[in-house]
Amino acid sequence: MLKVDNINVYYGKIHAIKDVSFEVNDGEIVALIGANGAGKSTTLKTVSGIMHSKTGSITFMDENITHIEPHRMVSKGLAHVPEGRRIFLQMSVMENLEMGAYTQGRASSEDIENIFEKFPRLKERKNQIAGTLSGGEQQMLAMGRALMSHPKLLMLHEPSMGLAPILVEQIFDIIKELHRAGTTILLVEQNAEMALHIANRAYVLESGRIVLTGTGEELAKSEEIRKAYLGG
Fold first, then answer.
1. Distance in Å from the first CA to the final CA of the chain
2. Most exposed among 132, 151, 217, 231, judged by the fewest C-beta atoms under 10 Å?
3. Helices 165-180 and 109-118 meet at what angle, rounded to 10?
4. Which pLDDT score is estimated for 228?
C-alpha cells in the first residue's frame, strides 16, 4: 500500500533523514519507533507531503505521491492524525467531525453514527467546544475526524503522548479495533512497548536511519530493543 524508498530529508544543512526505506502492506499495523529526535516526526511529515525528500520516492496505492501537496493526500485515501492532535479548538465536536469529511462533499449521518459507535464519549459531547475536552477525548476526536475521510491508510503520530496510563490503554484498544475493522495503520509512537505489542511489523529509527526491522513480537523480545526502549 505504501512504499517509501531511499528518502533523505534536510532541515537547512541538518541531514535529518538518511536513506530511509520502508513499506506498509494492506491490512497491517506497522510501527515506527525510536527515541526523541530519531526522525519519526520528519518521516511522517515527508510521507504526508508537508516536507520533501531530496532523493528517492514515496508510492501510495501504486501512485507516486512524492511531490503531491498535503491537501490532496486526503482525497487519495491517506489520513494523518498529527502530533498534538491539532483539532479545531473553537469548534464543537460535531463541527470538527464535519470538517473531517470535506473530501466527501458532506458529512453523512451514517458516517457520524459510525464514529459515535467507535467513540461513545464523543457522542456524549457532540455539541461541546473541542477545546474544553480532556486530552484523551481530544485524541479520540482527532482520530474520529481523520476517519471521516474514509482513509485507506491511517497515520497516527504519537497518539499516547501526554495521556494517563489508563487512557493510553483505551487509545490502543481503539487502534486495535480500527485495525480489526479493516483500517491499515502506520503508527509513530514513543511508547515502544505498547506499539510493538499491537504491530504486525516495526522499524526502529535512530539518528535518522532505520537500524532494525522485524515483526512486533521479534523486536519486543530483542535484547537490544529491551535495553534501549523497554527498560529491560
1. 34
2. 231
3. 130
4. 76
pLDDT single digits (tens) 75-120: 899 999 887 778 888 899 999 999 887 777 777 888 899 999 989 9
Nearest to 138 by CA among 128, 153, 148: 128
- Residue 195 C-alpha cell reads as 506499539
Residues with Cβ within 8 Å of 189's Cβ and at least 6 positions away in sequence, in order, are: 31, 32, 33, 156, 158, 159, 160, 195
pLDDT of 231 over the 70 cut:
no
Sequence-distant (≥ 6) Cβ neighbours of residue 102 within 8 angstroms: 149
Which value, to the nearest 10 degrees, does the dihedral of the CA atoms of residues 173, 37, 51, 65 take?
-50
pTM reported for the whole predicted model: 0.91
Which cell numbers hold the place of 115?
Answer: 464514529
Number of Cβ within a 10 Å radius of residue 163: 19
Q: At what angle do helices 93-100 and 135-147 cross, to 10 degrees?
A: 30
Which amino acid type is present at position 67?
H
Q: What's the confidence (pLDDT) of residue 232?
A: 52
